[in-house]
Amino acid sequence: MCHRLLQGALVCAALVSSSSWADGLPQINTDTQWHFALTPYLWLPNVGGSLRFPLPGGGEADASTGPYNYLQNLRFAAMLQGEARQGDWSILADAIYLNFGSHSTAVSTKGSSVFQRELTSSGETSLKGGLIQLGGGHTIPQLPRASLDAIAGIRYLSVSSSLDASLQANFGGPGPGLNPQIHASQREEIFDGFVGVRGRASLTADGRWYLPFYLDVGTGTSDLTWQAMAGIGYAMKWGDITLSYRYLEFRGSGDQLVQTLRLNGPARSVTFRFSRAVGPA
Fold first, then answer.
1. Which UniProt keywords apply (predicted)?
2. Which domain CATH number covers 28?
3. 178 falls within a domain
4. Domain containing 139: what range?
5. Which helix (H) or strand (E) holds 225?
6. Residue 203: what are its φ and ψ, rounded to 5°?
């Protein structure tokens, strides 16, 4: 596990974008001040994918999850990012929590005895989880109207899900079949290293209107995780307002709970910036 995490951090890992991480870089400062950014934001992604649950007797059930409807399924959400920058160096953080209620699902099972060849007649899954990302960045030499940061760090995802299903057994012969009820729940923790880039390109000479962009790829507990973002932003003295579209994906394998997990949708953010001098006055 540690070897995979280190390999992910050094080889190809991933960064989840946030408003402060990916919605564009502030003007690069060459003074000794620390420049801070705090960004509450709202991301409205479609959430979908496939999950794998262990069953009694050694079998397993694969269940589709989502797409969840925010108005019908969302129970609670919280999202916040932060950044601290001095000169060309920056420290980045992002935190998300989502809790969805039950959602109808399709289930297939495999394994031993009664679960060997079955399909669902009905089923429901629930999903909740938290995402925390910590990383650092360094500015690559800037172009006249564009800036770019190389970034690296660690992303942590904690996912809990449950499955309730009524299965219709089909053994290929005449006579009544079996209709077992199954209930399973599982929690998984995912650690992925990441590398990536983020940047912004000014649309106007004063830099107030700009295009933020972001791309990453990575691995670790996940076989693959990647993310892309693009949008438009407006900068003011106190901070930025941005509108963007964000895509995030995890791909697992084997007996992992998360086989695939995709989050994609629009995001709106407001970034508040402030500075503090360091060193002797």
1. Signal
2. 2.40.128.90
3. yes
4. 2-220+228-273
5. strand 224-235
6. -95, -25
What the block records as the tokens of 234 is: 């407006």
In a domain, 278, yes or no: no
Q: What gap in Å lies between CA 240 and CA 218, rounded to an integer? A: 28
Whether the CB-CB separation of 8 and 192 falls below 8 Å is answered with yes
Count of domains forming the chain: 1
Q: What tens-digit pLDDT sequence spans the chain (281 residues)?
A: 434 433 443 333 333 333 344 444 444 445 578 999 999 999 988 888 898 888 776 678 888 876 766 656 677 778 999 999 998 999 999 999 988 777 777 787 776 555 455 555 567 888 888 999 999 999 987 778 888 999 999 999 999 988 887 766 555 444 445 556 778 888 999 999 999 999 999 999 888 999 999 999 999 999 999 999 999 999 998 999 999 999 999 999 888 999 999 989 999 999 999 987 665 54
- Counting runs of H as helices and runs of E as strands, what totals does the chain give? 3, 13
280 located within any domain: no
